[in-house]
Amino acid sequence: MTIKIYGMPYSTCTARVLATLAEKEVEDYELVPVDLSVGAHKKPEFLKMQPFGMIPVLQDSDLTIYESRAMARYISDKFESQGTPLFGKTAKDKALVNQWLEVESQNYNPCVSSIVYQLVFAPMHGRQGDETVVKQQLEKLEKVLDIYEAHLSKNKYLAGEFFSLADLSHIPYTFYLVNMAKKGDGITSRKHVSAWWEDISSRASWKTVTAKMN
Length: 214
Description:
Blueprint lengths: L2 E5 L4 H12 L5 E5 L10 H4 L9 E4 L2 E4 L1 H11 L12 H34 L6 H22 L12 H15 L5 H4 L2 H10 L3 H10 L1
Helix pairs in contact: 1-3, 1-6, 1-9, 4-5, 4-6, 5-8
C-alpha cells in the first residue's frame, strides 16, 4: 500500500517529511493536499486522524502517525537499507542524531518558528507581526547559534561527519527564516554555521521539496 502524506508542501512540517522521503529515495507515496484556507484540517474526518488538527499526517497501511519528527524517524527506520543513512551507521551515531533532533525541537525551533510566524505566516493571514516578539526571539536565537558555531567548528554536521536527520530537521524553518523572514544574519555571520547551512540547504532532496512549494 502506498504511503499517504496529508499536508501541503509549503508547510514546514510537511516539508520535513517530504525531504526525508527524498533522502531515503522513496518515490512510492501520495501527497494528499489539505486545504488550510478552508479549514480542512479542522473537519471531523481529518480530526479522526489528527485530533489536534495539524498537518501533516502519515498513513501507511493500518498505521497512522502525526508529528513530523516522529514521521521522519519512522521513514528513516522503515527504509533504513536505502538512500541516505539518516541515523548514521552505529548506535553511537543514532544517539547523537537523536540528541540533536531534541536540541532542534527544544532550543532552535521555538525561536525560529516564532520569528517566522510573526514575519511570514501572520501577514499571510492578514495579521500584523509583533516586532517585540521578533526582537526577543532573535536574542534567544543568537545564544543558541553561538553553541552551534562552537560545535560546528569541530564537526562538519551536527552528529559528526555525516549528514543526518538532525541536520535535515533544521532545513524547513531555517529556509523560511533566511529567505522569507529575511532574518538570516545570525546564520550568515557565523563562519561554520553559514557553511553548514549552505551545505544542507543545497542538497538535492531539499531542491525537490522547494520545487513542490512553487
